[in-house]
Amino acid sequence: MNKTGALIISHGSPQPEWVEAVNAAAGEVRIKEHMPVAVSFLGNVEGASIQHGIDALESEGVTDILAVMLFVSEGSTHIDEIEYALGMKDAPDRETDLEPFAIRARMHVGRPMGDDPDVARMVWDKVSPASVNPEREVILLVGHGSIHDGFRQRWEAGASALTKRVGATSGLLCDYALLNPDNVRAKAEEWIGKGRRVLIAPLFLSTGYFLQTVIPRKLEGLDYGYTGEALLPHPLLPVWIERQVEELLARVDAEA
């Protein structure tokens, strides 16, 4: 008899507040009755590794694991290495130290958050308190990006698509910039030069070094709107996780 379980995979952080935010979001997820759920992290969280999550689900008799990738972008190198370690590809696109996990169950892997409409709403909800004159403003989405060829293009494609979603959601002009390669200040100065007040919307799940230090440092001396808030916590994240599980479950049923 087949039994499904959900494995929520995130990056992890040495900041306990961030881990608590992910666990809190997972705790609000309402999915199929009696489906086991495990929250796991790529690193920095003792006793909650991806292997720990796999083992926990398999110990409950799970035969099909639905892996929810709680990452912002397809361009993350972590997506690539995790997919490899989960057995979804024969080799990673970029060299990794991550070893293949020990898995007995069948693995079904979802996609990261990308340009999902709920993600666009989350971005707007977080940046909107900084808006004072929408007709003269532009939202500048700021993502981590990548220096690696192939991954950078995935980041750009995803950020461009999400920019359109946020524009439709907010009714404001929207653009995006990436920390890698570094064009955040240039983009902000370009819009300021056009007479627009720039609202900075960080595409990060957690607060911390990038939001508190890196982004403000890049924009030092400029006049811009910024709440400094990450995407978490937000009530729509559990909703997004629920839909991911439902889509993966439908895939399992179709393959049965």
UniProtKB/TrEMBL annotation:
<keyword id="KW-0479">Metal-binding</keyword>
<dbReference type="GO" id="GO:0016829">
    <property type="term" value="F:lyase activity"/>
</dbReference>
<dbReference type="InterPro" id="IPR002762">
    <property type="entry name" value="CbiX-like"/>
</dbReference>
<dbReference type="Pfam" id="PF01903">
    <property type="entry name" value="CbiX"/>
</dbReference>
<dbReference type="GO" id="GO:0046872">
    <property type="term" value="F:metal ion binding"/>
</dbReference>
<keyword id="KW-0456">Lyase</keyword>
<protein>
    <submittedName>
        <fullName>Cobalamin biosynthesis protein CbiX</fullName>
    </submittedName>
</protein>
